[in-house]
Specification:
Helix content: 55-70%
Order of helices and strands: HHHHHHHHHHHEEHHHHH
Largest sheet: 2 strands, antiparallel
Shape: globular
Number of strands: 2
Distance between the termini: 15 Å
Structural class: mainly alpha
Strand order of the largest sheet: 1-2
Number of domains: 1
Number of helices: 16
Strand content: under 5%
């Protein structure tokens, strides 16, 4: 019981500290909540407009549900407080599922890692829509072995909040023997969601979030943007960091930047297909789910980050679920990658929000920190892909992902 008490005490303290940091740190780490989530959800509740239905939207349609749900707690002082409470509640449900009765060392290690990751990444890990997908992704991954239908449903719902959990679904489809369950469950949930969207009159906006992402430029924090950030720091002609008001993000420009941005969608697709093919080969050669799924999930999620022309700091939350699964299954082997994610998350918090204004001025210290962060992510991606390529069949044993 004392172990569970310590974990839950850490949960409360970490969330209180990170929520408070959102009000204290510079560069508006809560800005998305009160600048976009609040007006979007308020308009939907008034019937003025419904993003994703009456007009194309940057997010899948289910993302509007938690944005509206946050209003239930706005009586605590503001919509921003309501959002913080909503995310904390979602995390508490996922945390309870992960910890269980507190008997598994792997689950306890994973729970400590999760709280350390929340603290290391800071406010951006709470005050972004991505935060809602993390407990859903963790629950879905934990359910896949024993309750594949529920696992697939959780991951598919998360995918319709923010697209990235599609990587976890793809990893599950490749690594699991019951692929019909994964494909059928994802198709069924997606069909229901699309059906509701169509009935609501959103036929023209149903998949608007797909085109919006492919048309974006190079965001300043993305790994592919680093040459242009360094050129800006060094004063190279034509290189600059600028604010794109249409998407509320800072991007880079420079020689060939448009061509690089146009090519990155294809690069991402090729890398993802390469990772999937590696996982498929290992599964075909007899590697078990427990050996294939964690590195495949991590490699796919990292592929979406390191080859992405958008590099938002909250993307580091995507790494929590694959690392949690790895720690539950084999905490000794996954302790190193977990430490890398924590260090990268801490560097990300330094970049945003702590040193974001100096970064936008291309000052040396934040540029070096961002470069180190991106190199760590690329190195971790390489580790995950190599680990996947070496995954082999092992003797059967009780599956540690089964719910306690």
């Amino acid at each position: 019981m004392s172990r569970r008490v310590a974990l839950w005490a850490a949960f409360v303290l970490v969330h209180a500290a990170v929520i408070a940091a959102g009000f204290l740190f510079p560069s508006q780490p809560m800005g998305d909540v009160y600048n976009v989530y609040e007006p979007w959800s308020a308009d939907a509740l008034r019937g003025a407009r419904i993003v994703g239905i009456t007009e194309p939207w940057v997010y899948p349609q289910i993302a509007l549900v938690p944005m509206m749900a946050a209003w239930m707690f706005a009586w605590l002082g503001s919509y921003t407080w309501g959002w913080a409470v909503l995310v904390s509640g979602c995390n508490a449900l996922g945390f309870a599922l992960l910890v269980g009765r507190g008997r598994s060392r792997g689950r306890r290690a994973a729970a400590w890692f999760w709280m350390a990751a929340v603290l290391a990444l800071g406010p951006v890990g709470i005050y972004r829509i991505d935060a809602v997908t993390v407990p859903l992704a963790i629950a879905g991954c934990l359910w896949l072995a024993g309750r594949p239908w529920w696992g697939t449903i959780a991951l598919t719902v998360a995918m319709w909040v923010k697209v990235w959990p599609a990587a976890l679904l793809a990893a599950a489809f490749v690594a699991m023997r019951r692929r019909v369950v994964v494909a059928g469950g994802a198709a069924a949930v997606s069909a229901v969601i699309l059906g509701v969207v169509l009935l609501a009159g959103g036929a023209g906006s149903a998949l608007g979030f797909v085109g919006d992402q492919t048309a974006r430029g190079l965001q300043v924090e993305a790994p592919v943007s680093m040459p242009y950030v360094w050129m800006t720091h060094l004063g190279a002609p034509g290189a600059a960091i600028f604010f794109n008001a249409d998407i509320i993000a800072f991007e880079v420009v420079g020689p060939g930047a448009d061509a690089v941005a146009a090519a990155m969608t294809s690069v991402l697709a090729v890398v993802v297909l390469g990772v999937v093919a590696t996982g498929a080969v290992r599964t075909w050669r007899g590697a078990r789910f427990a050996a294939v799924f964690p590195p495949l999930a991590l490699a796919l999620v990292l592929a979406l980050i390191v080859t992405n022309k958008v590099g938002s700091p909250q993307y580091l939350t995507w790494l929590v679920a694959p690392i949690v699964v790895g720690l539950v299954l084999d905490r000794a082997r996954w302790a190193g990658p977990a430490a890398v994610v924590l260090f990268a998350s801490g560097l990300t918090q330094l970049v945003y929000p702590v040193l974001y204004d100096p970064l936008l001025a291309a000052q040396l210290t934040p540029v070096l920190i961002l470069t180190m962060r991106n190199l760590l992510l690329v190195a971790l991606f390489g580790w995950a892909w190599v680990r996947l390529a070496r995954a082999g069949a092992r003797r059967r044993s009780p599956h540690p992902l089964a719910a306690e």
